[in-house]
Amino acid sequence: MRVIICGGGTGGHIYPALAIISIIKEKEKNSEFLYIGTHNRMEKDIVPTYNINYMPLEMYGLKRSLNPKNIKTLICYLRAIKKCKRVIKDFDPDIVIGVGGYITDPVIVTAKKLGYKTFIHEQNSVPGLSNKHLLKYADKMAISFESSKDYFKNKEKLVYTGNPCGDSALNVRKANKEDFGLDKNKKLVLIVMGSLGSLKINEIISTMLPMFTDRDYEVLFVTGKTYYDEMKKNKIPSNVKIVDYINNLTSVMKVTDLMVSRAGASTISEIIALNVPTIFIPSPYVTNNHQYINANDLVKKNAALMIEEKDLKGDILVRTIDNLFRDQLKYNTLKQNISSIGVKNSSLKIYEEIKKIIGDK
User: Fold this and answer.
1) N or C: which end of the chain has fewer CB within 10 A?
2) In whole angstroms, what is the distance from residue 131 CA to residue 137 CA?
């Protein structure tokens, strides 16, 4: 199979793309791939490390208000369309796959106008602006949350597959707690606010650190590299370990008893796959407040807890953690309900949908 895949800007778009590539490689070992991403975002550094051919496009997101920078964005978009025509014709793919982010727009639009098959994967419960626009150019769109159907008029093109990142998580080897100075016999609370961390959350957590003293569980707090040095200045209880970044966070999730996390779609897919009870603190700074909606999808099913950032005051986080560990029935209920939701074998379902689109090629 010859595949062009595009998307990026955040890990929430990039890692589902890599998971889709992985399942296609597994099923069809002679497949060839071309990844089209931005010239200045994280995918340009991540994707080539997987020995995948990478082509950058200079693209920028459209500003929501009247802004002179939108003129440059439009010029770059027209140039991207022109470049995509040449590249897509030369590569001659069996299918072009978009996984979200503004970079997908010129690629999917061009591919469809050239007569190629197209497929889109949406990770969030609230579809992104690009994907809502691109549905008319897609042969099929895979969604990660059933509730996403409510945002589209043309539901015939939608297929509920879940997020393939969950499948990838199952294959990761679990971490050794001792490598982080942790006691293998104590419960572990993992606190992480995305790969870059969060200044606001770090400031709040710094005031809460003394409250973790004398607990019968340990805390591993991932600060983000930018904020690590400042956080280390705080008085840190002996049962709290602070690190700036964990390269393979999924491996640590496998030995985690309770997670405190943002509510990005890929993170949620891993939480569901690994059955990790979680307290979500959704980022209020994302488009359409989609992290709140992502998290609330689990909260309504009694499969997670949530504290909004505006309510993260006093000892509420420590109190919530303590209460959950004390209430074994509540804790077990969360685990049981997490295990009953989501889509199993998401990667395989996506592969099968792609095969239906392209037929016998």
Assistant:
1) C
2) 10
**Is residue 360 pLDDT above 70, yes or no?**
no
**Pairwise CA distance, residues 241 & 253, whole Å:** 15
* pLDDT, average across residues 58-65: 78
SS3 content of the chain, % helix, strand, coil (to 5): 45, 15, 35
154 plus 272 within the same structural domain: no
Domain with 289 in it = 171-339
- CB of 82 within 8 A of CB of 57? no
Cβ proximity of 131 and 151 under 8 Å: no
pTM: 0.85
Strand ordering across the sheet containing 305-306: 240-243, 217-222, 187-192, 258-261, 278-280, 305-306
| Helix (H), strand (E) at residue 338 | helix 328-339
CATH number at residue 332: 3.40.50.2000
Q: 238, 3, 249, 272: which is closest to 117 by C-alpha? A: 3
Exposed/middle/buried for residue 146 (C-beta within 10 Å: 0-12, 13-18, 19+): middle
- Token pair for 240: 């709290």
In this structure, are 103 and 233 located in the same domain?
no
